Amino acid sequence: MLTDSLTNFRVTLASRPVGEPTEANFRIDRRPVPEIAEGEILLQVLYLSLDPYMRGRMDAAKSYAAPVAIGDVMEGGTVARILKSRNRSYTPGEIVLSHSGWQSYAVANGDGLRKLNPESAPISTALGVLGMPGFTAYAGLRNIGKPMAGETVVVAAASGAVGSAVGQIAKINGARAVGIAGGKEKCTFVLDELGFDAVIDHTKADFADALAASCSNGIDVYFENVGGPIWDAVFPLLNDFARVPVCGLIAHYNGEVSARPDRLTDVMRTILRKSLTIRGFIQREFADQRPEFYQEASKWIAEGRLKYREDIVDGLENAPRAFIGLLKGRNFGKLIVRVSE
Ligand SMILES: NC(=O)c1ccc[n+]([C@@H]2O[C@H](COP(=O)([O-])OP(=O)(O)OC[C@H]3O[C@@H](n4cnc5c(N)ncnc54)[C@H](OP(=O)(O)O)[C@@H]3O)[C@@H](O)[C@H]2O)c1
Prior knowledge:
This protein has 341 residues and is α/β, with parallel strands linked by helices. It has helices at 53-57, 132-145, 161-172, 184-193, 207-214, 228-234, 264-273, 290-302, 319-326, and strands at 7-13, 26-32, 41-49, 78-85, 95-98, 105-108, 114-116, 152-156, 176-181, 198-201, 219-223, 238-246, 277-280, 310-314, 334-338. The strands form 3 sheets. Strands 3, 4, 5, 6, 7, 14 and 15 form a 7-stranded mixed sheet that branches. Strands 10-9-8-11-12-13 form a 6-stranded parallel sheet, with helices on both faces. Strands 1-2 form a two-stranded antiparallel sheet.
């Protein structure tokens, strides 16, 4: 594992990918850990979250957040231990949620950190089920999907960080949860461990027919995580007044899904005819609902109604490969890098 007490191991953006990222787009370097000034703290990163949005940060294209500059540390959410503090609000030994990026140490001024209580939940959950992805599921359903008892909610990437929470929260709301996942192992997990009502394997040739058979009363809420051929199979099944929170389009992030017929007219006609609501969102739009989320999600976890799976990779040096795999469905659960013991 690339850590010691003197050196900051960093993963920086070496070049912008064209299509799929490769390990050559990243560079690992070493820098001395800087001294902290008055008001600052030194963080030792314990866990780094790897998330699909990071693919967008590798491009120069305009988006809802600024790109990572070439040569800069890749950005990312982290759980860190305070090693040294010259800030009266923080004490060495405390554990915080920070946004320290792909590196083993970071200096911070204390702004934007959230203290974590290791007694109340495993600290890695602050990056997953009790963190940004869990909140994304909660906020997208609460504000846009609005599932009602008896309705059918469909979500793809259903074994993953966001999708797993979407289906379970839909069920807490009394809806029927149908998951879409890639491969037998993930599908078995979604059905047997997470308790979805049905699951469809999108890698199978009969995927679209199987989805239609499983949603014989149509789809009331489709929580869009993926796009591509999965969206094509879902779209004709949407009921009148269906809601589609557009959360992510991971199938398009590397630009692979191209040369598809232009269906805009058909889509717009259907939106009109079926009175559909299709609404994109970035979770931070609903940031004021985070306190309620932490409270409700913690309760659901304690009651066994909200389960989660983490896919933990050891060592910062393995972050690039793990991240490339995330964009191909190689992760199984919330992808997290253990940076330090
Ligand atoms: N709007 C927001 O604020 C917000 C916040 C967080 C996340 N998101 C979005 O939510 C989605 C899920 O994120 P996550 O963190 O929960 O990731 P995740 O589900 O833990 O991992 C990604 C999963 O996506 C599926 N996938 C990857 N490439 C695919 C492809 N080409 N076609 C179909 N499926 C593919 C794979 O699952 P299978 O093997 O099961 O297909 C993979 O395991 C992403 O689109 C992400 O960008 C949005």
